[in-house]
Specification:
Rossmann fold; six-stranded mixed β-sheet
Length: 416
C-alpha cells in the first residue's frame, strides 16, 4: 500500500474537528485512504455508490447520520447533498471531534443543495493523484527547500532520468489505476473515466444546461494545457455562451479535473497581465486528450504539446506538495506586457517569493532566466530562489540565487 502524505492531515483534523471532508477527483484513492484512516477505530464506512445505502441516505438523512455512536465514514457524499444539513444538525447537538469522515469527488461547498454552512464544524483535506514522492515512498520537500533558499541541498540531488523517462511520466499521469496499464488499455481507461465524469458526476453536482459540451471544453483546455485563459476563444470553440463559461470552468474545478493558477503581480509593475492559467490536474489524461504518446513528443514532432505538459506536470506536483509543506504558500504565474514571464510563482505568507521556469529541453541558456532575473532585481531579498527546471542531468548556477536544476529535483532528495 503506497503512502499517502495527506493521511497525517486527515488524522490531525479528526482529532480536533467534528467533520473531516476528504475531497478529490474520482479514482485518486479517497476511499482507500478513508479505509486506512478508519482501520482500528470505532468506525463504520458507507458508500453512497451502493444503491441501498444511497436510498437510505435520501429517505432519512437525519437517521442516516445518527446511526453510529462512533466515527461514521460516508463515501461519495456529493450524491446526497441533503446529508450536509443533517450532519450540521447532529454536530450542533454533539460537537465532539471526529464524528464524521466524508469523502467526495466534488467540492462540497459548491454542490447544489448544500446551502448550509459548515463553518467552524468541518475542515477539508484535498487528495490529489499520486505524487512522484508517494510512488517512491519519500515525502517531498522541494517547496520548503526552495522557499528557504537552500540551493546547495537542491543542487546535490542526483538526477538519473532522461527526457524519454519524463515523457513516460507525463503520459502515465497520477491516477493509480492507469499506472498499471499501458497502450490501448490505458487509453481506454482515460476515455471511460472522462465519459463517466460527464455522464454521471457532472449531473450529480450541476444544474448547467449544456453538460454535453463538457468533453469538448475539456479537450480545448487540454490542447492549451497550462496556457492563459482566453474566455472568448474557449467559449467559441465549445459552443458555450461566454457569459456562461465561468460556470462550466467552476464545475470542472469542483470535479478536480482542472486547476486555475492566478496571475501574480504584487504591484510590481502596472504592466502585469491579469489572466489566470488553466491546467488539467492529470497529465496522463491531458496527453490522451491531445492524442500524444512519448514517441509523438520527440523533439521537433510535438514539442509545443510537450512543453505544455511539462509545465502542467510541475504545477501539479507543486499543488500536491503545498498540501503538506511546512510553508504556508500559494501558487501563481507571472507575465507582463513587455514579454517578461515566469511560468510559476510560489509566494508564502511572509510574501517571500520563488520563481520557477519549466523547460522541456535538456539544455538551458542564459536567456531562459530573463523573467527570473527581472523578479530578482525588482524584489531584492524577497526572492529566495529562481530556478529553471529542465530535462538535463546537471545542477548549474546562473547567478545570485539563480539555478538550473534537473526536473526530478522536484521529488528526489540529496540522500536518494
Amino acid at each position: 500500500m503506497l503512502p499517502r502524505f495527506a493521511q497525517e492531515l486527515v488524522e490531525q483534523t479528526l482529532a480536533d474537528t467534528p467533520i473531516t471532508v476528504l475531497q478529490g477527483a474520482r479514482q485518486v484513492g479517497k476511499s482507500t485512504l478513508a479505509r486506512q484512516v478508519l482501520a482500528g477505530r470505532d468506525a463504520r464506512l458507507l458508500s453512497l455508490d451502493a444503491t441501498a445505502v444511497y436510498e437510505a441516505a435520501r429517505s432519512d438523512p437525519d437517521g442516516f447520520v445518527r446511526q453510529s455512536s462512533g466515527l461514521l465514514g460516508i463515501d461519495e457524499v456529493q450524491r446526497a447533498p441533503e446529508l450536509v444539513r443533517a450532519m450540521k444538525d447532529a454536530v450542533e447537538q454533539d460537537r465532539r471531534p471526529g464524528r464524521f469522515l466524508i469523502t467526495g469527488s466534488a467540492n462540497l461547498l459548491d454542490l447544489p443543495g448544500t446551502q448550509e454552512s459548515l463553518a467552524g464544524r468541518a475542515e477539508t483535506v484535498v487528495l490529489y493523484g499520486l505524487s512522484r514522492g508517494e510512488l517512491a515512498g519519500r515525502r517531498e520537500d522541494f517547496v520548503d527547500r526552495l522557499m528557504a533558499g537552500d540551493h546547495a541541498e537542491l543542487a546535490a540531488r542526483p538526477a538519473t532520468l532522461t527526457r524519454p523517462d519524463y515523457l513516460d511520466i507525463l503520459c502515465t499521469g497520477s491516477y493509480p489505476e492507469p499506472m498499471q496499464r499501458t497502450g490501448r488499455r490505458r487509453n481506454a481507461w482515460f476515455d471511460n473515466y472522462l465519459q463517466r465524469i460527464v455522464s454521471r458526476d457532472a449531473r450529480d453536482v450541476s444544474r448547467l444546461a449544456h453538460l454535453d459540451r463538457l468533453p469538448t471544453l475539456v479537450r480545448l483546455l487540454a490542447a492549451n494545457n497550462a496556457g492563459e485563459l482566453v474566455k472568448a476563444r474557449l467559449a467559441t470553440g465549445a459552443a458555450i455562451p461566454e457569459t456562461s463559461l465561468p460556470g462550466y470552468l467552476d464545475l470542472l474545478e469542483t470535479l478536480y479535473l482542472i486547476h486555475q493558477i492566478p496571475a501574480w503581480g504584487n504591484n510590481l509593475t502596472g504592466r502585469v497581465t491579469g489572466r489566470a492559467k488553466v491546467a488539467l490536474l492529470d497529465t496522463g489524461l491531458a496527453a490522451r486528450l491531445n492524442n500524444v504518446t512519448p514517441a509523438a513528443m520527440s523533439p521537433g514532432v510535438a514539442s509545443d504539446v510537450a512543453g505544455d505538459l511539462f509545465e502542467a506536470l510541475v504545477a501539479g506536483e507543486l499543488r500536491r506538495q503545498l498540501a503538506w509543506s511546512d510553508v504556508d504558500a500559494s501558487l501563481f504565474h507571472f507575465r507582463d506586457r513587455d514579454g517578461r514571464e515566469v511560468d510559476l510563482i510560489v509566494e508564502d505568507a511572509d510574501r517571500n517569493v520563488a520563481g520557477i521556469e519549466v523547460k522541456a529541453s535538456s539544455t538551458v541558456r542564459s536567456e531562459d532566466f530573463r523573467g527570473l532575473t527581472f523578479l530578482r532585481d525588482k524584489l531584492g531579498s524577497r526572492l529566495t530562489s529562481g530556478v529553471v527546471l529542465y530535462t538535463g542531468a546537471n545542477a548549474l548556477p546562473f547567478g545570485d540565487r539563480l539555478w538550473a536544476l534537473p526536473l526530478s529535483t522536484l521529488w528526489s532528495s540529496s540522500c536518494a
